[in-house]
Amino acid sequence: MWIGIDDTDALNKGCTTFVATEIIKDIVSLGYDLIGYPRIVRLNPNILWKTRGNATIAIQVGIGGGRKNCIGEIGEKIYIYEKKKKEADEEDIIEVVDRIIREKSSEEANPAWVVSKRKFSRKLYSKAVKEIVSVKEVKKILQENGAKYRCYRGEIGLVGASSAISWKPYDRTYELLTYTSGKKYIEKESVIKMDRLFPSTFNNYDYENDYIAIFPKANSPVFYGIRGENAEDLKEAMKILVSSPIERWLIFETNQATDEHLQRKKIEEIKPYESVIVKGKVKKEPFHIEGGHLIFSIINGREIDCAAYEPTKNFRKLIEKLKQGDEVIVYGGVREKPFTINIEKIEIKKVVEIYKKIENPFCENCNKHMKSIGKNKGYRCPKCGKKAGEKDARYIKIERPKPGIYEVPVMARRHLSKPLKRF
């Protein structure tokens, strides 16, 4: 039995993963088991009506069999099983899910749940993580699969709840989330130690900006989250942290840090609200706008603006060095107004050579430097009139950025963006 939930939180409070832990706690108390990891499935990060990271939840339940593994504690230890021996009773599951969502969802949210004995085609997830999916499309899929569902105050949550169920991992990471209703304190030095001891984890600490990245930015029951490629490492990593007490913890399987939201496109194919990988040459050189943001454009048939916004901090120093003619590949989400790519990563393929004049030609007859006649017209000695060309001046070659892939700092990364350490 698959459960999908979405949109139980608001922009400034709540967390759908916490609601998931409440559902899991009650389902386990009925004697049912988790089949595989519960899942955090991030969808299109550019959707205007999202709440923060656009996360949805999928959980598979039943009577488990095969190997079991502890993945958390919610009052008692929580185990997952590698296979399902028997299906759960649909009415039992619906009663728990419906009750918890009504009790625990934010009053400002538009929550929805889906319960299905069948897993939906991955095509739904693939579209939802890259494009816009309509409620009408989703309802058709739910009806075709005999799924049960319910919405509160609006239907948009159905898209996320259904898409979460349809995710079939081609790439995956894990996140250990902790929760507390009390004081939230964590020792910075322990975060740094954990980050260095467990290289399979990522996005823990931003060394350049002295920023602890495992804290959520919103008011939420989540205390901290450790992300990584190995679920077992996360349990050991948690032991390194020195923090105020946690009340529960749970490991989720996720599509975070996979770049699954990105599509390779030509500039003329790009649409608003997509996330793209696009190749071009720099046309408009970088310039600053109000707010500390940096804008430049690339061209490859057509032209499009690209932006390194203020939160990307020192990443903008790299962007400032781009020159007209540089060949780049830009990774990022597309805004509608202004029509711009918000850069997540940039690959510099080839840079043009830039030279800086440091000395005018020297007249050996008069022992004086010549003076410019005009732009690109050469030089002339002011005393004897001897002439020289532009190439006779003395130049130095300006150091340019080295070819390679560069990413925004940890503090500015989107949940779905794959960090370079995973490449």
Report on this model:
- With 423 residues, this protein is α+β, with helices and mostly antiparallel strands.
- The chain folds into 4 domains: 2-166, Alpha-Beta Plaits, CATH 3.30.70.2200; 173-254, Glycinamide Ribonucleotide Synthetase, Chain A, domain 4; 262-352 and 400-422, OB fold (Dihydrolipoamide Acetyltransferase, E2P) (Beta Barrel), CATH 2.40.50; 355-397.
- Helices cover 19% and strands 36% of the residues.
- It contains 8 helices and 28 strands.
- The chain has helices at residues 16-29, 90-104, 122-128, 135-144, 157-166, 188-197, 231-240, 315-320, and strands at residues 2-6, 33-35, 39-42, 55-74, 76-86, 112-116, 148-151, 173-179, 201-202, 205-206, 211-212, 222-228, 248-254, 262-264, 275-282, 287-289, 293-300, 302-308, 327-335, 340-350, 355-359, 362-363, 368-369, 371-372, 379-380, 387-388, 394-397, 404-407.
- Strand 16 (287-289) and strand 17 (293-300) form a beta hairpin.
- It is elongated, with a radius of gyration of 27 Å.
- The model has no long low-confidence stretch (mean pLDDT 95).
The CATH architecture category of the largest domain equals: 2-Layer Sandwich
Uncertain residue segments? none
Shape: elongated
| CATH level 1 name of the largest domain | Alpha Beta
What fraction strand? Answer: 35-45%
Number of domains: 4
